[in-house]
Amino acid sequence: MSKQRIKRFKLNVSYQKERSWLEEMALQGWFLENISFGVLYTFARGEPRRMLYDIDRFWLPKKPVLEEIRHKETFRELAQELGWKEVTHSEDMTYYFAKEYEEDGVNELHNDPESRRYLAEKFKEYYYYIAMRQVFWGAVLAITDILIKLLTLTWEEPFPIWYDWFVLVFFFAGSLMALWCRRRGDDIRKELSMSRQEWEEGVDPETHRTVRRLIWTNRGLNRFLRKQEEQGWILTSVTPTRYFFEKSLGKSQVYTMDCKSLTNRRRKKGKQKKFEDSKDWYGINNDWELQSVRDAEEKGWTFVCALENRAIIYRGDAGEVQPLNDVKYDNSLRGISLIGEYGFLILCSGFIGGVIGFIFAMLYY
């Protein structure tokens, strides 16, 4: 008699959440049997029991060394010795393993920080590869389009416009895909670097929260963070539009933000040389950050987090810290801190190019 099977369509953006979902299905008596296209799951009926699921990927680079070629076989043998059974793999060579829960056993396939970091890097590199591939083919199509136009300048009939639209749509969609893949790779690296317990604690709404907010001034940032602190939430990390908090019932805190321009203002006031590096095209030289941390610690501030190499947020006990920067800068825009100097340069270039193009268009027509 054939097994009873069901199919479920589910888009999982988190491997940790996917693993939890598969384990919930096993408790209901449905066990993973196959995955197609990363979203179509096939389950077979069985006796409900507590199962554990974990993943790894075996995707070789173009020029693998012997260790990389043998890694898949070695890992599968080790997993089997630990009681993990290979279930299936998806089209991107993500392999799924399962084992029955053991009360006093090792219930994670990657149960030490080093192996988790190695796993996380493999997934990050895969998504970075997809991003670079999208950029490459977009560039190939754009260059091909330009060459075709140059070769067909003498044609009586114009080259079909649908190809121009095809290139434009592909290039735009490919660029968005590349950006998403880069972001996805970074998110997965962070997620898979954590143990299951660390991840569960990080998503527990009782102890952690995420707030989406676009804040433009240091004063507004401090006001927002003080309000969160009054509710018992302490800042742990930031992105340009997201703020991550954890539950805390500590002393009243105040916050401040520092950036390269403010650090240079302090340097100039002290008659010291500003931080300028003509070779630092992408704004990644961290000399100013080292100076910022030294200045902040001297005034009693504690480092909280940094937004890449754009800004640093500090926290201190109310009434015990000295101002890091002049309060007159608290209402200054922090646009550079949000998008970075390179992003700011691109926006300015685009604006200037748009103005020039508009002027020329008006004069021409």
Order of helices and strands: EHEEEHEEHHHEHEEEHHEEH
N- and C-termini, Cα separation: 78 Å
The number of strands is 12
- Indicate the structural class: alpha+beta
CA-atom Rg in angstroms: 27 Å
Average pLDDT score: 84
What is the topological layout?
Blueprint: E1 5-9, H1 15-27, E2 30-36, E3 40-45, E4 51-57, H2 66-81, E5 85-89, E6 94-100, H3 113-151, H4 161-192, H5 196-203, E7 208-212, H6 218-230, E8 233-238, E9 242-247, E10 253-259, H7 260-269, H8 287-298, E11 302-307, E12 311-317, H9 335-364
Antiparallel strand pairs: 1-3, 2-3, 4-6, 5-6, 7-9, 8-9, 10-12, 11-12
Describe this structure in words.
The strands form four sheets. A three-stranded antiparallel β-sheet has the order 1-3-2. A three-stranded antiparallel β-sheet has the order 4-6-5, with helices on both faces. A three-stranded antiparallel β-sheet has the order 7-9-8, sandwiched between helices. The protein has 365 residues and is α+β, with helices and mostly antiparallel strands. The protein has nine helices and twelve strands.
Which key features would you list for this structure?
9 helices, three-stranded antiparallel beta sheet, 12 strands, 365 residues, alpha+beta
Produce a short descriptive summary:
The protein has 365 residues and is of the alpha+beta class. The protein has helices at 15-27, 66-81, 113-151, 161-192, 196-203, 218-230, 260-269, 287-298, 335-364; strands at 5-9, 30-36, 40-45, 51-57, 85-89, 94-100, 208-212, 233-238, 242-247, 253-259, 302-307, 311-317. Strand 8 (233-238) and strand 9 (242-247) form a beta hairpin.
